[in-house]
Design brief:
Length: 165
């Protein structure tokens, strides 16, 4: 391997490809406006930060349509997708009229929409936001969570994967 810099024309693509070698789970981050409209998008930048206090991190691109809703909300939920929820990941990353159409939802704190069939769900208070280049970095304080023994959906090198033992 040889170290590469950002001087060449295709540096952005090669940087993205290198980042893609870090395998992640997939989440859908959801919230609701004060008048009840649900919002959500597919996010793989989620990670844990701290156990005490319980903190998580994720980042939101500056140019997503629902940026103001997430910046201003009191709570949001991180829904960790299971292996059989690839269609939900695609739905919450594409332009469809209503991303929540036909989904069975439960309400968490502040009415945040919780998706069914996930591996884990974390309801977070929207405590801290930091500018992070072309993204905003959100640090959330987890106020409640649950977990189910389901295999997770994995994302690696630009493709969905499944765990094998
Ligand atoms: C696997 C995957 C992971 C993604 N991770 C993120 C992420 O961490 N942060 C983000 O802002 N967008 C992420 N996106 C893109 C957003 O889901 C997408 O830009 C968003 O749904 C666009 O919403 P809009 O059309 O309402 O602007 C990801 C998309 C996919 C398919």
């Amino acid at each position: 391997m040889s170290q590469q810099t950002f001087s060449s024309d295709d540096a952005a693509r090669r940087f993205r490809n290198a980042l893609g070698m870090f395998a992640t789970g997939i989440t859908v981050v959801t919230t609701r406006t004060p008048d009840g409209v649900p919002f959500g998008l597919t996010v793989n930048s989620f990670n844990s930060v701290s156990l005490e206090p319980p903190l998580i991190v994720w980042s939101l691109a500056n140019d997503v349509s629902m940026r103001e809703q997430f910046e201003g909300c009191e709570y949001y939920a991180i829904n960790v997708l299971a292996a059989d929820q690839e269609a939900l990941s695609n739905r919450f990353a594409s332009r469809v009229d209503d991303r929540f159409a036909g989904l069975a939802l439960e309400d968490g704190e502040g009415g945040v929409p919780l998706l069914s069939g996930c591996c884990a769900r974390f309801v977070c208070r929207n405590t801290t936001r930091h500018p992070g280049g072309d993204h905003i970095v959100f640090i959330g304080e987890v106020v409640s969570f649950d977990r189910e023994e389901r295999p997770p959906l994995i994302y690696h090198a630009g493709a969905y994967r499944r765990l094998v033992d």
